[in-house]
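User: For my dataset I need records formatted as: sequence, then structure tokens, nothing else. Please produce one.
Assistant:
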Amino acid sequence: MNRVFIKTYGCQMNERDSEQVASSLRDRGYSVVDNEFDADVVLLNTCSVRDQAEQKAIGKAGYLSKRKRENPNFVLGVMGCMAQNRGEELIDRLPDLDLLVGTQKFHRVPDHLDHLIRSANGQGPRPSTLVDLDEEADSQNTIRDHIGKKNQVSAFVSIMQGCNMNCAFCIVPKTRGSERSRPIEHIIEEVEELAANGVKEITFLGQIVTSYGRREFPVVDGKSPFVQLLEKTNDVPGIERIRFTSPHPRGFKQDLVEAYRDLPKLCEYVHLPLQAGCDKTLRAMNRPYTKNRYSEIVNSLRAVVPDMYFSTDIIVGFPGETEEDFSESAAFFADIGFDMAYIFKYSIRTGTPAEVMPDQVPQEEKERRNQVLLEILSRGSLQRNERLIGTTQEVLVEGPAKRGDAYTGKTRGFRNAIFEADERLVGQLVELKIDRVTASSLYGELVLAGVDTF
């Protein structure tokens, strides 16, 4: 009864939460397996950002319920954002559920499984469903452990939880609570441990990562707590690259812009959520910036790093978005020249202001607008990649590619690169001469002066 499979839906923060749960379960003596059919316990770590994500998780839980009816000792749990958002109403829909754990209670999962398994073994009463959705002080400080992975090159590091923004479309403040930040020294200790284990690249995570510590820690020499954290991380031996996600445009003050100029390990890649390229839609979304301010941020970053790469989040079909509004947004999207984007069709989230807004956009129109932006993105991304043909790019070798005998890695600009290599280069920074590209990938040959690649 100690084999656990964890399936994760959604963002990098959910991936990191699942990793923390897996680490704590292994410390407790559980075996974390890679196949749900080998597991005695299946935990679904869920997402609520879009309805489709919730429906996928509910469908999976329904499918697993059949297995539970065949094997009463099989344990089924739902964790994370959907558990927090829907609460005990999920039990009505999924009566075979054993465990329901909220976003501030991931560290309690081993205790809860211990209790459920003891009950299954006749060592106590077994509850119909064990529910733990309450808030817990300092829960942000429980996400600090990592699973030791062979040849681990990069790692996510959660630096805060929660969100204090009130975007009209977003359920995250409800599911993740208010902003809570970890002490800088604790984060640096975690980074140093990862570096000692061979990790070369760190990605800091937060709902609004650039809001890190703004209520808990002081500004020093005109630098925000987040920039102070970047500076200290830049000094950690062994760490070669620093990234972060997801920020908010309002977090890009001059100190952060200058950090891209001054910190050599901070990669020239910015994920800068736009959400809409129309001021009218931005106001309706309760996003506290304009197109002009967004352009100023982009231009300031390109001024310090001319080859900066940009990705974004953007929503099509927000309530009240007219064809004229969308055309304006699409034109702005094209003008910025994003290298990558997550393009979302607006999805109603119960309990958000946008749920009851008039002039909801038909689904087929959302689909059309989505395709328009995808085509703009594909053309722009291909053109940017084509400019790299003949150049040499620094690549961090991550491991074997999914297909063939090739290896894969990322450039500093977060472009995916595919090339022939050898396992001993995993975790190394190499020079790659680009000879062909697609809209999403770079292909080339390693430039290893005096070194035999194979």
